[in-house]
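Reopening this ticket.

The earlier resolution said the output was attached, but the attachment link was broken on my side. Pasting everything inline this time so it's all in one place.
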Amino acid sequence: MRMRPTLSWTPTDSLPPATTDLAPVVEALHGGGVLVLSGAGISTESGIPDYRGEGGSLSRHTPMTYQDFTGGAQARRRYWARSHLGWRTFRRARPNAGHRAVAAFGRSGLLSGVITQNVDGLHQAAGSEGVVELHGGLDRVVCLSCGTFVSRRELARRLEEANPGFEPVAATVNPDGDADLTDEQVGDFQVVPCAVCGGILKPDVVFFGEAVPPARVEHCRELIRGATSLLVLGSSLTVMSGLRFVRQAAQAGKPVLIVNREPTRGDGQAVTRISLPLGPALGTVSDRLGIAVEDAAADRTDEALGA
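Inline output:
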């Protein structure tokens, strides 16, 4: 029997209480050298649901696992039908005030880096540079046989040619770009192979049950070692891929600050958890620091997503 990945976490009564006081975040950023670790919660204001917050997608949707994807053609058919439709929605998403504030902090020299657990490219679209995509990006596709990379735009073109008239209406789109479709809506959707070797194509993202590449993990650990503090934005820290960096920072005596509406698995290692909507909260922080945040007209979404 296959083991399912950890998808949920139950808070305990011993967690420290949340606050609405943004002063610790302002102070940390004012000192510089802050490393940002962001999760799905920073993108909810862009219309992309998170996994575990109120109304989160895990209450109705089990994400595709690496084992299921590689284990059978029918699973891949379902995934690509749903993801092809979901990509259309992802392509229309735009950075929100939270993404733009993080980019402004970076331009002002207050950040040592940005690690994101998201696959939506919205940090880059807002202008953040050198973003480490811990779980990869939906804008790229890789062949599991020959390792060739292609853009999602090119794959979308091929899938549209192979599936003329495929226009189902999805109930919703999830943080991984996987739209909710019934088996009837998936129908006989045609999956296309790698154009180079005929192998299996997979989005260049880390599925549940798949390991983050070791070199990427080590790069993130190096960023932790070089940071003065860690600022977690919109992540429940349920899965170890992000939680390990919180634990590393805390063990090294570096302050961990968390801004998330719900309790997180890392609250016990944090000096503070602030329960506020991310966009307004980071806008307030930027105002207190006297940092100008670019408006939406400056977004680079098409460039970031390979349009």
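Reporter confirms the inline version is readable. The longest helix spans residues 73-92. Residues 89 and 173 are 7 Å apart (CA to CA).
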